[in-house]
């Protein structure tokens, strides 16, 4: 629960039934051949690996094979216990003719587009003895020689862009090329990788990790180093695939951030939530998965205020120097809140629909925020958001991430307050023009008056927040991790035979978050009483036991 629990000198022990692991020190996955992806192509593709004399896997490649269909990968953001949120990044992979020996990265959300000649890339540097990495390898640090080999190809990206924009483009290009050259080969088919994201960038929600997970997954799928996802997959096999994705996503995060904790990519890869622990600051943090973490409706508001994690950490360090005993007490209290929230959320009796249970969680949210404010890591905009939301009585709000800007999150109450401060039930429910009633899933025969009232309050709240320059998202906490849509075909209600093929042009033309979600979103509707994943999207879910 505590967004800044990593600042504590001591941290909580992991529950006995969880096995802590970290992306930078966990053991290798079993180095054996696994099923190719997708399953429907298995019959037409050769085995992904075979064993050499020394037992290590050796990749096999066909000299010639049919062009792969376009496919998509999607990964969520996070809100740091650390949990996945339903805002997601989407990566569309399309294939070019064999004669077009190029690889292109398109990221329209940050106005980035660049094409590299595949044959001119520094393959020799990445394949020389002692440098070559395989999909099953554990990479805990970047190779300076390989970074130097990539640099000339990064320098040519966005040469005329302002320095602030160019820096972002170069970080994205570094992450992509390092993964591409590590996992692919000279014989890689020409491709276009197109990224779209519904996650606010630079708001502390793990947007870079979500993108790294998408790229890692796509490249591993292309070399057939992943199996599934499918509904009959054993939990251990799901874990193996998630860990493989996570390891390489961590490499992408190192390219962007230098020394990431590994928490963001872990949550984005596996979904649900993780318990973050740092017992020794000279060692990587321990991250324990929380597969039983329940899904909760969440309101997320972006302050649009830039923030610096280093600045906020420095504030706490300075406070600790001036008031060591008081600061330590606050940090210890944050740890107790985290422990209490973990115990509550992972209890088999936890029911998010019970007002008393959710009130308990909400009180912990409120306490946590107050403690973070006392550390000086809030911001006037975050406090204004909390004031506006508290005025409606619709939930419990706290800052997230490092604070100092970024986003605030609100755990929504299962039912709205009996009477809002500004409107009565009748006044709110009489507005027939509201978007909430315009939605098909908000019909009076299906949705209770209480739920319709909550939607009315949320719509009214959105107007108020936008008037003050904030951005509101209705999302879900602790959902699925990385997902795959192979081939890139969805049934979007347009009666197109066999479903609608999502090509690059359609993907690029989708306008804003609403357009992206309508075209390729994992969930069918914006507001539903029952969550529904669109047919076609598949996920690795180790918490589900296959039916026999």
TrEMBL record:
PANTHER family the record matches: MEVALONATE KINASE (PTHR43290)
PROSITE patterns, alphabetized: GHMP_KINASES_ATP
Organism: Pyrenophora teres f. teres (strain 0-1) (Barley net blotch fungus)
Record's GO cellular component terms: cytosol
Name of the protein described by the UniProt record: Mevalonate kinase
Pathway connected to this protein: Isoprenoid biosynthesis; isopentenyl diphosphate biosynthesis via mevalonate pathway; isopentenyl diphosphate from (R)-mevalonate: step 1/3
Catalytic function, reaction form: (R)-mevalonate + ATP = (R)-5-phosphomevalonate + ADP + H(+)
Disordered as annotated region, ranges: 1-31, 420-442
GO molecular function: ATP binding; mevalonate kinase activity
Domain GHMP kinase C-terminal as annotated: residue spans: 358-416
Gene3D superfamilies cross-referenced by the UniProt entry: 3.30.230.10, GHMP kinase, C-terminal domain
């Amino acid at each position: 629960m505590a967004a800044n629990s990593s600042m504590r000198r001591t941290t909580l022990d992991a529950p006995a039934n969880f096995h802590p692991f970290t992306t930078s020190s966990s053991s290798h996955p079993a180095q054996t051949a696994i099923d190719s992806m997708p399953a429907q192509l298995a019959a037409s593709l050769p085995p992904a690996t075979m064993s050499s004399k020394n037992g290590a896997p050796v990749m096999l490649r066909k000299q010639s094979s049919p062009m792969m269909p376009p496919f998509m990968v999607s990964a969520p953001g996070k809100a740091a216990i650390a949990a996945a949120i339903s805002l997601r990044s989407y990566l569309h992979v399309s294939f070019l003719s064999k004669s077009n020996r190029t690889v292109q990265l398109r990221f329209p959300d940050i106005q980035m587009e660049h094409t590299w000649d595949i044959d001119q890339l520094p393959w020799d540097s990445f394949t020389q003895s002692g440098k070559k990495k395989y999909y099953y390898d554990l990479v805990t640090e970047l190779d300076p020689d390989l970074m130097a080999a990539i640099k000339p190809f990064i320098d040519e990206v966005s040469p005329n862009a302002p320095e602030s924009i160019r820096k972002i483009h170069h970080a994205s290009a570094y992450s992509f090329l390092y993964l591409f050259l590590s996992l692919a080969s000279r014989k890689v088919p020409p491709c276009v990788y197109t990224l779209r994201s519904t996650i606010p960038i630079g708001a502390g929600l793990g947007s870079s990790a979500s993108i790294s997970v998408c790229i890692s997954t796509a490249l591993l799928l292309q070399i057939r180093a992943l199996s599934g996802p499918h509904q009959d997959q054993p939990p251990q096999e799901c874990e193996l695939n998630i860990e493989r994705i996570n390891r390489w996503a961590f490499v992408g995060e190192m390219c962007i951030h230098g020394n990431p904790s590994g928490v963001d990519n872990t949550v984005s890869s596996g979904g649900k939530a993780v318990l973050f622990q740092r017992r020794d600051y000279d060692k990587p943090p321990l991250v324990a998965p929380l597969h039983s973490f329940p899904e909760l409706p969440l309101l997320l508001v972006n302050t649009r205020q830039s923030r610096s994690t280093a600045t906020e950490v420095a504030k706490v360090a300075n406070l600790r120097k001036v008031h060591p005993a008081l600061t330590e007490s606050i940090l210890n209290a944050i740890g107790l809140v985290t422990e209490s929230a973990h115990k509550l959320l992972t209890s088999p009796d936890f029911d998010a629909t019970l007002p008393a249970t959710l009130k308990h969680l909400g009180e912990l949210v409120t306490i946590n925020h107050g403690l973070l404010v006392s550390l000086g890591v809030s911001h006037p905009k975050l406090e204004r958001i909390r004031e506006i939301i508290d005025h409606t009585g619709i939930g419990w709000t706290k800052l997230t991430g490092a604070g100092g800007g970024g986003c605030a999150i609100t755990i929504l109450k299962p039912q709205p307050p009996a009477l809002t401060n500004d409107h009565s039930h009748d006044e709110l429910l009489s507005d027939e023009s509201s978007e909430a009633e315009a939605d098909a899933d908000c019909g009076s025969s299906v949705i209770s008056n209480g739920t319709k009232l909550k939607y009315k309050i949320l719509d009214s709240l959105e107007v108020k927040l936008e008037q003050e320059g904030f951005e509101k998202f209705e999302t879900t906490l602790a959902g699925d991790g990385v997902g795959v849509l192979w081939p890139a075909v969805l049934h979007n209600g347009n009666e197109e035979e066999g479903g609608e093929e999502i090509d690059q042009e359609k993907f690029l033309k989708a306008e804003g978050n609403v357009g992206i979600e309508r075209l390729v979103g994992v969930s069918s509707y914006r507001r539903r009483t029952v969550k529904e994943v669109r047919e076609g999207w598949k996920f690795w879910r180790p918490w589900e036991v296959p039916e026999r």
